Amino acid sequence: MTEQVYDVIVAGVGGMGSAACWHLAQRGQRVLGLERFDLGHGMGSSHGMTRIIRLAYFEGTQYVPIVKRAHELWTETGARAGMDLLYVTGSVDLAPEGAGFVESSRQSCIDHGLTHEMLELKDIQKRFPAFDLPKGHIGLWQPGGGFVASERAIYAHVGLAQAAGATIRTNEPVLDWSPTADGGVRVRTERGVYHAGRLVLTSGAWMDTLNPALAPHIKTVKQAIGWYTVKDPEPFRIGKMPVFILTVEEGNFYGFPLWEHPGFKLGGPHFAREPIDPSQPDRTPSPRQARMLKECLDRYFPQATSEHLALKGCIYTVTPDDHFVIDTIPGVPQVSFASCCSGHGYKFASAIGEILAEIATTGATRFDISPFSLDRFKQAA
Ligand SMILES: Cc1cc2nc3c(=O)[nH]c(=O)nc-3n(C[C@H](O)[C@H](O)[C@H](O)COP(=O)(O)OP(=O)(O)OC[C@H]3O[C@@H](n4cnc5c(N)ncnc54)[C@H](O)[C@@H]3O)c2cc1C
Fold it and tell me: Is this structure's pTM higher than 0.90?
């Protein structure tokens, strides 16, 4: 069988991989994107319609330049594709005073000169009537926060990539890859063997199978998201309800205003992570996860019901420190990868696609990705 030849192969066309395909094709590369399932499937990490984006990043200052670039790209790419990808609804972080969460978000806003406002409980109740929070809760309002239409963005990136000449093949998992004597890569699937100068691994929850160097450092866990019937849609509409992250004694939840779905979307608790083997097909949230969402709704959202219209499981690929890994494979610089975004990566996907395209075409990126190196796990060991 003759090998088909490309400049770059992208293994995994989900959130990150679709963006990489577009940025590579835009740079004139001959791109092949290989995807295990249908495009926009519900087995990985990017389904469920929306993902929160916020500029203040209490997780670490290393993320801020990348999220700023991601923000620009969501707007730019949406305009090119003729689709709205970024919705700026404002975001509010809510937690008991002194718990540290709102305080560190505030510090991040101050450090990066981001517009923000501290809210007391009475301000929260007045401005956002969907919430009924316990005494002692405070909030941090950021007008620049919002959400990205995550599934739509995959279609936008792939459509643009194809229009720029990329080949996208679905239901064709990469079985394995090996470096070649010419400094390139040979990639094998059930349907063929391909040769490329560079390989980009964006295989999300299946990253361990293609990237043995990373495998010992990552875990895959299931998260629950639900869309719930509301008694009155008004307090849940964009304008009345921002995206939010809510810390309460039951855990850390997050949610969205009503958008393209009659149900109020609530997810979490963020740290109630249950191991999942991505190769098994069941994505149903556990009874415990469903119960925790129900308890959060019953207690803090009097205008919603806990009757779900949809309840889905989704996968986080997590690292020991909950930070990303964006790097090349040790000793194989022609193979780069990004993933393991520990449940907070989607907002960056547009910029991570660009970073991967820069690495594949020039060997470097203008962003400082040293905090995301694979090496840090060796140093920590
Ligand atoms: C419930 C939930 C809520 C979240 N909320 C937020 C949020 O509000 N904000 C935020 O920024 N982030 C959030 N995240 C995290 C974010 O969604 C993920 O970091 C992001 O989607 C990861 O994208 P990815 O491209 O790595 O994975 P995916 O989009 O899953 O893409 C990986 C792709 O690789 C394919 N693949 C796997 N193996 C192979 C193979 N061998 N060959 C070919 N293809 C392969 C898979 O089929 C898949 O399509 C959330 C995640 C979940 C699960």
Answer: yes
